[in-house]
Amino acid sequence: EVLTELAQQHGVQTTDEEFAKFLDEKDNIAFLRDDFILPKYIKCPDKDGRLTIVSEAHNIIYLNGHSLGVQPKTSKQHIIKDLDGWAKKGSLCRSEPGKIFPKEDERLSVSMAKLVGAFPDEVSIMNTLSVNLHLLMVSFYTPTQTRHKILIEKQAFPSDYYIVQSQIEQRGFKPEDSIIQLQPRENEDILRTADILDVIEKQGDSIALVLLPGIQYYTGQLFDMEVITKAAQAKGCMVGYDLAHAVGNVELKLHDWEVDFACWCNYKYINSGVGAVGSAFMHRKHENNERPKFIGWWGHNASTRLDMTNELDLSPGINGYRISYPNSLGLCVLRASLAIFDKTNMREIREKSILLTGYLEHLLLSKVSKYIEIITPKDPEQRGCQLTLKLKYTASEVYSKLMKRHVICDVRKPNAIRVGPVPLYTRFIDVYWFVNILQEVLQDFTKKIVL
Ligand SMILES: *Cc1c(COP(=O)(O)O)cnc(C)c1O
Ligand SMILES: *[C@@H]1O[C@H](CO)[C@@H](O)[C@H](O)[C@H]1NC(C)=O
């Protein structure tokens, strides 16, 4: 409706190229695209359909930021500066002001905390998502004979699934007895909040931990974290979230929602490169908890860490969960990326995102609804920027053709593609071109089948 109204005001149709240009002109954060390097190389299918030939193209439509964000332009400068300092000064590089040692990770927590609605001392920059999940489960999964279950979704990301299984086994329980799996109703793709609450209501007394994604990686469904957290805690369960697909994508209020803990990776919407250093959140209410935890020297109060007394002065809160010296080069890229987020805020990003994904959805429904089904929820409050399209044709074949036309998104076997117009660097015109290309590709398929 908003789109139709805007188009009418401007005297164009929502499906006109003119309209995409108009939306780009009135985009308040369009300037941020200049802070990123957009990919220029694409793998094209050879005559057998294998994606091998690498060619350079200047008009790539990158819609894969949900899988790997693009590179902030200043990353290289930060890394070179860091390497130069090390080369010239050796160990002395560590004591320079503004350098990694000893508090750079704590400095970056300030910007990161804003993205998740937390206080800086509730967020720590460390390890990777899966490692952080293990570390936090050491504290927050404390099963007893009567309360040993973990509630997860059946389609949980494989890493989360393995982590849960191994943690359960580690405590002497059996995954088959201790995992409760949520799944959508028959012929539905999306979990209903009411169904999740129902399981919590009925089985909550036996559940030690509710572990869900903020946004489901496959369907793009955004969970109602506030409501789920409240219901689960009322039943005495701990609540943790995997925010891999939610952070930098939607507004989060982890502190106000009273979430117990969360962890996320920073290479998707946070654009900090393959295998980037990850992050974790623990609510202030657990600041001085005496739960079991694994401890290393980086959890020691930074001011006296180097006194080397072996008398632990553990940092309160999540900072006490840090184990090792953070990777300096990793932090360089994260610093470059968070500086871009600092120029805006999640409310502004989300506002564009709702319009941009709404525009994508509108064009898909107008132009290719014959060939696809969008399984992501229609309600903007129940999704982030990504839409998942179920195709009538083999997704990898469609994707080969899309790649040939310089589109990068991703395929989930057997017949889905995920399309993520990331608002920080995606233009409305990119979305417009993408849908036109998809329409041509899908029409080609239809013709072939008729012949
Ligand atoms: C990407 C992703 C991960 C990745 O975990 P790493 O430890 O960073 O490799 C985990 N969980 C979800 C839901 C993801 O989407
Ligand atoms: C760390 O130690 C210093 C010096 O003893 C102290 O002033 C500071 O409050 C401590 N920090 C934390 C977070 O406990």
| SS strand fraction | 5-15%
Distance between the termini: 39 Å
Low-confidence stretches: none
Report the mean per-residue pLDDT as an integer: 94
- Main sheet specs: 7 strands, mixed
Shape: globular
Oligomer: single chain
Widest β-sheet, arrangement of strands? 6-12-11-10-9-7-8
Top CATH class of the largest domain: Alpha Beta
Number of alpha- plus pi-helical segments: 13
Helix/strand structural class: alpha/beta
* Overall structural domain count: 2
Report the CATH superfamily of the largest domain: Type I PLP-dependent aspartate aminotransferase-like (Major domain)
Count of DSSP E strands? 17
Name every ligand kind in the structure.
Answer: pyridoxal-5'-phosphate, 2-acetamido-2-deoxy-beta-D-glucopyranose
